[in-house]
Amino acid sequence: MKIKEQENNLMEKIVSLCKRRGFVFPGSEIYGGLAGTWDYGHLGNELLHNIKQSWWNKFVATREDIYGIRAAILMNTKVWDASGHVAGFADPLENGEKFNTMFKTQVGAKKEEIITSYLRPETAQGIFVNFKNTVDAFHPKLPFGIAQIGKAFRNEIAPRDFLFRQREFDQMEIEYFVRSTDWEKYFKYWKDEMLEWIEEIGLDMKKIHDVEVAEDDRAHYSQRTVDFEFEYPFGQKELFGLAYRGDFDLKNHKLNYSDPDTQELFVPHVIEPTFGVDRAVLALLLSAYAEDELGGEKRTYLKLKPALAPVKVAVFPLLRNKPELVKKAREIYTNLKQEIPSIIFDDNGNIGKRYRRQDEIGTPFCVTVDFDTIKDDTVTVRDRDTGTQERVKAGELAEFIKNKLV
Ligand code: GAP
Fold first, then answer.
1. 245 Cβ below 6 A of ligand 1
2. Model pTM greater than 0.85?
């Protein structure tokens, strides 16, 4: 099969797996859908949540120089005038006319009180408008950052390629404030930090490329941009981005910073690492998808890092019609669930089918309760990637699995 055909097949396989197994569904499907919208099912939502949690832990919770916020999606229209989005956030239409991709909406009920607003096209502006509040509340010294995870909306002219180009998506953004003379140092620092996280979550590093964006292709606020691109089956395209926004935003919002030691008043410059969560989900699924042969049977599995997998452990009784096995398996499942979240119990079909089902959704460990369990209180723990099984004492199971959930 030609490479192109194989890659198209891969996209089809991912989209189909996502629908069938409850990761991602087409938006508003029972009414014929709405282009550019996708809904996450239980497993996709868990994966999305795990990605956000990994990001927040690395860039906010474990650092002292980054403050998290959750700003309102609707903002005063003046924000979007000052940020340059009303004038400049536009894509060219086929006939060369420009089209502003912000979704316009109305706020207020009484005719005379109605004002125009927009659904935010980037989470960044919610950060900039809270710059002064954050400085006044926490008195941070430069360099420091403000981070936000949240929805962004763009009326994309041509939404396409599954989760890649949507009209509503999640962003994870940091605005990192530095002295103007330090921008190059922190640009390099953030490039390395981004790459480190990209590797940590298990993206296929062979498919990641950092690309310098030419001046003509940069956003209106950026003086330098490096995109992290991923080799998707539909081409090498942007995954995440890193921009040097200079003093563009703070200056336009008429904000400044007073050095707490010297009282020097100036406008900090901004380095912005930005990450699209949905593109991370898509690139992770594409990196993790694998097919092989195990025990003479073909199988599909998702080689997700255990820490990101939507389900961590599945517990089974070897046979569903043996009450002593079912009772013991239920007991082990209930105990394990107290210590490790995202665990499921499954006694449908035969054991082989249960393994295949868990492989397909990327569950790293399957625990089986068999007749030996009744005798010696040990269970088998099966590893998703190799299919190998180990006997572990039931009392040590939680510790055994916790050590592997990294
Ligand atoms: N604040 C900077 C900013 O918004 P951007 O490159 O326009 O920069 C940031 O968007 C990230 O958001 C992108 O790197 C991408 O991961 C994600 N993204 C942008 N448009 C998207 C869309 N239509 N669908 C899904 N993700 C999108």
1. no
2. yes
